Amino acid sequence: MIDKKNKALDFAKSIKKKILTTAYNAGAKSAHVGGALSCVDLISSLFVNYNIFNSKNFKDDDSRDRFILSKGHACLAYYSALNEIGLISDNEMKTFEEDGSNLLGHPVINKDIGIEFSTGSLGMGLSIGIGLAIASQKKNKNFKTFVLMGDGECNEGSVWEAAMSAPNLKVKNLLAIIDKNKFQQTGANSEIMNIDPIEDKWKAFGWNVMTLNGHDIPSILSYFETIDFEKPNLLVANTIKGKGFSFSENNNAWHHGVISKKIYEHALNEIEET
């Protein structure tokens, strides 16, 4: 567990820096920074703990675990993680948001670089994940499916249709994660569409539910060891939008924005000091 913890902490620090640099290089095209940073520790823990892309022939490995970034606008965290494990090259990261690039502002399916589904139309990922989990059962493959959603995304009715369906279909080997950073594009969730008490609602549908600090990597990894995959599971991860940099933490102006040279250089110094 200590090795996994240290690996996940290093992984998270590295992809925070990649998010910052890629967003800065995007210039006036700008990027969704806040929501990417809030889910870094969750993605890092998943990638380190589970067999998602560990095989060199992962595309042909039908028994490996699956990951769906349902909150597709947080793709910089996803691309940075795929770069960290070698599926996306450094040169390709520099093409983010450029015409003809594989790395657009929302993920577009490209299994060669680890993007298994196009997402960004919010509310779709959990239904896809349920389908994958059912396929796992029918094929007797026993792979696990992980779906990362945003709390603002939970305004979408399709999320609740899926939430109601999974226990009814007796879905196994599924973990949905809500990145609860408490904001969406136009403001605080509590003011736009309050989803609380979120835990009680999912429990009522029949899910196993856990709530954790979404930036506490040791606690996240420990939770992974306790999951009962005989039922669908939900992790409510309390997070901070823009986590990791003073300019962006809990600042919803950085839902989507342009990073100046001054901000970039200051933020680089901050991450080196952590």
Structural features, described:
With 274 residues, the chain is α/β, with parallel strands linked by helices. The protein has one domain (2-273): Thiamin diphosphate (ThDP)-binding fold, Pyr/PP domains (Rossmann fold, 3-Layer(aba) Sandwich). 41% of the residues lie in helices and 12% in strands. The chain has a five-stranded parallel sheet with strand order 1-2-3-7-6, sandwiched between helices. A hairpin with a 2-residue loop joins strand 4 (183-184) and strand 5. The protein is globular and about 50 Å long. The two termini are 22 Å apart.
Structure at a glance:
With 274 residues, the protein is an alpha/beta fold.
CATH class reads Alpha Beta
**How would you spell out the order of helices and strands?**
HHHEHHHEHEEEHHEHEH
* Annotated CATH homologous superfamily: Thiamin diphosphate (ThDP)-binding fold, Pyr/PP domains
Question: Architecture, according to CATH?
Answer: 3-Layer(aba) Sandwich
Largest sheet: 5 strands, parallel
Tell me the helix content.
40-55%
